[in-house]
Design brief:
The complex is a heterodimer of chains A (166) and B (762). Chain A is of the alpha+beta class. Chain A is 20% helix and 42% strand. In chain A, strands 5-6-2-1-8-9 form a six-stranded mixed β-sheet. Chain A is globular. Chain B has 762 residues and is of the alpha+beta class. Chain B has two domains: 181 residues, no CATH class; 367 residues, Immunoglobulin-like, CATH 2.60.40.1730. Classes of the chains: A alpha+beta (166), B alpha+beta (762).
Chain lengths: 166, 762
């Protein structure tokens, strides 16, 4: 019996009693490994509502789309991105270059990139965005290289994935 | 034409001989995998309940359940007490030894399995408030407390509760045609739906100390018994919604006297529960067709917030032929009503909201309700109920017969963004639209989420577009209403995503990762594509209306929908349902190559070799002309530029004999275009050809093009102008996930990343 229920818990990825037409808590991040330029182009999509809620933890009055204060939003957003998105290449922390963001309907799409040192072997990507806000948040990672595509589903408790670069 | 026949004979012989060569190795057999095969393998067999046409069969039946309820809401303790008499009519041909009821509130019981979510463990970060609610606070004491279950003579009935389902064992099996009456008394703690989330509950307003209630799923209600599932008693885990029977409701709800309430059904005693002034306005609203009458305005509602009346009023509602019951009540509510003429009937469009919803709600809520009634009626049937109510509730979007809860709250200073405005209008349209699907076209939501969500989201899209036209001031500078779902290109990111996280539309909603795109957006987009690109509006609209009218006030299955759409249009759609609904295949159609060729009286090397190998006597060939294409070593560019036919004496003379001049009658340019289809889905092939003289020609090849070759097809273009460009799906109608192969000459579409980088550079 307990085994049966734990199997069902695993299947239940979304919280009981969801309001309708509204939310499923998923973000998608694509990491495009461009070998020619030895860089990884990262495009991340979040729901504007969720990011707004996250940024309001730091600044109550903040509004997104349209932005109440574009500069403040930029600073805050880059800040949370760097806090919850951690990348290591061959066990070394990597800083990434945040390029910016744009709104597409209800999505906030942001762009950042990082350089890949020569003969790098593996990349470890941690994406804990929104896990502190929503129990059922799922962050999908798609890692694309010339080998093809590898994906991972991250959730509270399983917050990083490792991909190979060679 | 003689030459054509000979050429064709040549081609045929070539093909036959080639196939002999291939059959030398032993091949493995296969089953029918053709994308156009009919859906016999997936569909339930037609029968007397759901026939092959997609209509209710001659023996179609459904049960009827009537409720008489007395309910009291304790505003201070946030509790609800109720007593109900259920009259259950067994219209099935079966004996029923027991009855099943749904106890949805039990999903909030302290020990409910559904409360336990991920088996994941702790996160690297935790907010203090969630730490408290997870580990410190007492869990919410939700769930139904059943006082008694008795028969019509008040004798106790044996019952057994399994989580959210309750079985009542009947002393004697209920025979076909018989009616059974029994009673239940219960109470439960109403949840705070803002903190704990849920489809119903209350919101607490700290500033004035009041609550606004949106109450539903508040009574033990009968499960559906039908020919497809037997008893639909799949547990309520939270995602799969509801399967419910039609019947008549008489509900008496007791609340504090200063509350204003709206509910499913018609208010029987307005004079008793309203003040004299409110009653007068209530009556006036019944004939106000051009704008709403505000029965309780903001000033009045705000004044009432301090009231906390100790007196009680009982609101009495009657509803006929509904599948459920919901109500909203609060002393904070502003209340407006407007009359709308729908066909022969007058319908009341109603909005109910606290002052926190203004000014947005007064501006747009009732307008959105009115548009929904008009557009949905146009596409299906005249709205048959007496009213449609939109209730403001924070973070909500949920539907019940004649009443729904909708989000859309401005900032405290009354300002609101476009996003909030359009979000509100869209959710109101969506939820009011649900009256049609599934409240009236009553599909089994527990099993098939898409049948109501997908169909509703589709008509929502049409309604939003209508709204933008009828209320241009609402969309301002925009050309169209900014619909989030419906446009084919918008579904591409989901469909092109990792297959591990995508399920076919035909999946149970509990087992799906991305429920939103799966049950709402993808089916809505598929229907939009069906309407605009595959069937055309006339055929689609007629078939869709036929389905809605066949199944209004009944329980349709997916087969009924799929079959009716074909049955009423004479357009074979099995390939479409199979691809879009039963698989997670994608659309990817491209132009592989464009090869120019011309005709010559002498064959090139390759053709000569083939002719020789087939035993043709090269000295005595019958009269024919030979294709010289771009890749051929004999290809003479100058010759090609002149004209495709001018180099052939044979053709020239042949045409002269007919009295035609080769330069004027025959096309000058011949192209063989190969289209490829890396994506699994078959779709009509929409091509735009561009010519050197600036003209364009749009051709749509039927989907049947792919029936014998799923990977690639070839088409010949014979024209008097030079072909300079080929675009596949120029208007992006097919949700093509890869636009890199849609152009000849080849044009690779830059990624969003590259586009953004370019943008910030400049």
């Amino acid at each position: 019996m307990p085994l049966f229920f734990s199997f069902l818990y695993l299947l239940m990825n979304i919280v009981a009693s969801l309001p309708k037409d509204h939310k499923f808590y998923v973000s998608t991040t694509t990491l495009d490994f461009k070998e020619a330029s030895a860089s990884i182009q990262i495009t991340s999509q979040f729901f504007i509502d969720d990011i707004e809620m996250l940024l309001r933890e730091f600044h109550e009055e903040i509004q997104l789309a349209p932005d109440s204060d574009k500069t403040k939003v930029d600073v805050l957003f880059e800040g949370v991105l760097k806090q919850y998105f951690r990348i290591q290449i061959d066990n070394q922390d990597q800083d990434f270059n945040y390029l910016g963001r744009e709104y597409k309907n209800e999505i906030l799409q942001c762009y950042f990139e990082l350089n890949v040192p020569e003969s790098a072997q593996i990349i470890r990507v941690q994406n804990s965005m929104l896990f502190s806000l929503f129990e059922e948040q799922q962050n999908i990672l798609h890692f694309k290289s010339k080998e093809g595509r590898k994906s991972a589903l991250l959730y509270k408790g399983k917050e990083h994935e490792v991909f190979s670069l060679y | 034409m003689k030459n054509t026949t000979l050429f064709l004979k040549f081609v045929f012989t070539f093909c036959v001989l080639t196939s002999f060569v291939l059959s030398a190795q032993v091949q493995q057999g296969h089953i029918n995998q053709n994308k156009f095969r009919q859906l016999y393998d997936q569909f339930a067999d037609p029968n007397k309940y759901h026939n092959a046409s997609g209509a209710p069969g001659v023996e179609y039946y459904q049960q009827k359940v009537d409720y008489v309820m007395n309910v009291e809401l304790d505003d201070e303790k946030s509790q609800l007490y109720g007593e109900e008499t259920i009259t259950y009519t067994n219209n099935s041909p079966d004996q029923l030894p027991y009855l099943w009821l749904q106890l949805d509130q039990n999903i909030r019981q302290k020990d409910s399995p559904a409360l336990e979510k991920n088996g994941a463990g702790s996160s690297l970060t935790e907010r203090p408030s969630s730490f408290v609610s997870n580990y410190v606070k007492d869990p919410f004491d939700g769930g139904f407390n059943i006082d008694w279950v008795v028969d019509a003579q008040n004798k106790p009935l044996p019952y057994k509760i399994n989580q959210t389902m309750m079985r009542v064992d009947l002393p004697k099996a209920l025979a076909p045609g018989e009616v059974y009456v029994f009673k239940i008394k219960w109470w439960y703690n109403i949840n705070n739906h803002v903190e704990g989330r849920g489809r119903s509950g209350y919101e607490y307003f700290e500033k004035d100390g009041n609550k606004a209630y949106v109450i539903a799923q508040f009574f033990p209600r009968m499960c559906v018994y039908n020919d497809v599932e037997g008893w639909q008693n799949y547990q309520f885990w939270g995602n799969g919604e509801f399967a419910l029977e039609f019947g008549d409701y008489e509900v008496n709800i007791t609340v504090p006297s200063d509350h204003i309430m709206e509910a499913t059904g018609s208010l029987q005693n307005p004079k008793e529960v309203l003040t004299r002034e409110e009653y007068k306005r209530f009556q006036d609203s019944a004939t106000s067709f051009d704008k709403p009458v505000i029965i309780v305005n903001q000033e009045e509602a705000t004044a009432k917030e301090a009231g906390f009346s100790k007196k009680k009023s009982t609101w009495k509602f009657h509803a006929k032929n509904v599948r459920d019951f919901g109500f909203a009540t609060s002393r904070k509510f502003i209340w407006e009503r407007q009359a709308v003429q729908i066909g022969n009937q007058k319908v009341m469009a109603v909005s109910l909201y606290p002052k926190e919803g203004n000014p947005l709600w007064e501006a747009y809520s009732t307008k959105a309700v009115v548009q929904t009634l008009k557009t949905y009626s146009k596409f299906t049937f005249d709205y048959p109920y007496p009213k449609a109510v939109s209730v403001h509730a924070k973070n909500q979007g949920m539907e019940y017969p004649m009443i729904c809860w909708n989000y859309g709250r401005p900032n405290e200073d009354g300002t609101y963004s476009d996003r909030t405005k359009f979000g509100m209008i869209s959710v109101i349209i969506h939820e009011v639209g649900h009256n049609y699907f599934p409240m009236i076209v009553n599909s089994d939501e527990r099993q098939w989420g898409w049948m109501d969500e997908g169909l509703d989201t589709f008509v929502q899209y049409l309604t939003e577009q209508d709204f933008g036209v009828s209320h241009p001031e609402a969309i301002g500078a925009l050309e169209n209403y900014p619909s989030r779902r419906g446009d084919p290109q918008k579904i591409v990111p989901y469909m092109a995503g990792n297959q591990e996280f995508i399920s076919p539309i035909m999946s149970n909603p509990e087992n799906v990762y991305q429920l939103g795109p799966n049950a709402y957006a993808k089916p809505a987009t598929a229907l939009n594509i069906l309407r605009e690109t595959v069937m055309g509006r006339e055929a689609f609209d007629h078939a869709f209306r036929t389905y809605a009218q066949r199944w209004m006030f009944k329980h349709p299955t997916p087969e009924d929908f799929f079959r009716t759409m074909e049955d009423a249009s004479a357009i074979d759609l099995d390939w479409f349902w199979r691809g879009w609904f039963y698989t997670t295949d994608v659309v990817d159609i491209g132009v592989k190559s464009v090869k120019r060729y011309y005709f010559s009286d002498t064959p090139d090397q390759k053709t000569t070799e083939q002719l020789e190998s087939f035993g043709y006597d090269l000295e005595n060939l019958p009269e024919m002309v030979f294709k010289i294409d771009e890749d051929s070593e004999s290809f003479n560019a100058e010759q090609a530029d002149q004209s495709a036919v001018a180099g052939s004496q044979i053709l020239k003379e042949y045409l002269q004999e007919q009295g035609l001049d080769v330069n004027e009658s025959a096309p000058k340019y011949f192209y063989e275009i190969e289209f490829e289809k890396p994506g699994g889905l078959v779709m009509p092939l929409i091509v735009e050809y561009s010519y050197a003289d600036g003209t364009k020609e749009r051709v749509t090849y039927p989907v049947q093009l792919w029936r014998k070759n799923d990977a690639s097809v070839k088409k010949i273009i014979a024209a008097n102008k030079e072909l300079v460009g080929v675009i596949i799906d120029p208007d992006l109608e097919t949700a093509d996930v890869n636009l890199d192969n849609n152009n000849w000459p080849k044009q690779e579409a830059p990624s969003d990343f590259e586009k953004f980088k370019e943008k910030i550079k400049g």
